UniProtKB/TrEMBL annotation:
InterPro entries: NAD(P)-bd_dom_sf, Sc_DH/Rdtase_CS, SDR_fam
Alphabetic keyword roster: Oxidoreductase
Source organism (scientific name): Nonomuraea cavernae
Name assigned to this protein: Short-chain dehydrogenase
Record lineage: Bacteria, Bacillati, Actinomycetota, Actinomycetes, Streptosporangiales
GO cellular component: membrane
Cited Pfam families: adh_short
GO molecular function, one term: oxidoreductase activity
Family according to the record: Belongs to the short-chain dehydrogenases/reductases (SDR) family.
Record has Oxidoreductase as a keyword: yes
Amino acid sequence: MTNTALITGASRGLGLALARSLAEAGWSLVLTARGTAELRQVATELDAVALAGDVTDPAHVERLSLAAPELDLLVNNASDLGVTPLPPLAGYPLEAFKVLLDTNVTAPLALIQATLPALRDRRGAVVNITSDAATGAYAGWGGYGATKAALEQLSNVLAAEEPDLAVWWVDPGEMNTRMLADAVGVEEAAGATDPAKVAASLRDLVASRPASGRVSLQ
């Protein structure tokens, strides 16, 4: 039986690295991201099903769930950094914060809800990608960190409510990605961990299936 994974934010960074790692291990993949051209290239490379779109769009979430009627792993990796340069909370634009919450918290929950029947059937797993900004008081990271803290608690409760599933909220540490470069600059981001290394650790996590909980890969 072939395992199937649904990965959001799969056109670059950690999502792309994890897709490549799982494909290497023989997984069947359903991938999504907003960038159609980039996603199409990844799908061709990995012989994957690709559905470009915005995870905050309910119609797109429904399409994704229909594309994965048999599902072993959901990876909520798609995320938004929010306003840049990163502003202090005293001046964080509230409308922008609402958009950030929609992308980083509401959208993952919507996709979990949509795919739960398939995940339950296969006693599958959910990986929600979080951040040390969810627990650390880093100046400028309040908006992003608050959304990741909410995602962590959502994951924690999901694990309690769905004991037959494995639910991990994973802090991957700093990675050399476009998002980190947008936050701290290209030069500093270049010294961070290669996403491929993190993806290998994530694949090992899924294969070993430890108890649900928070996982730090730093």
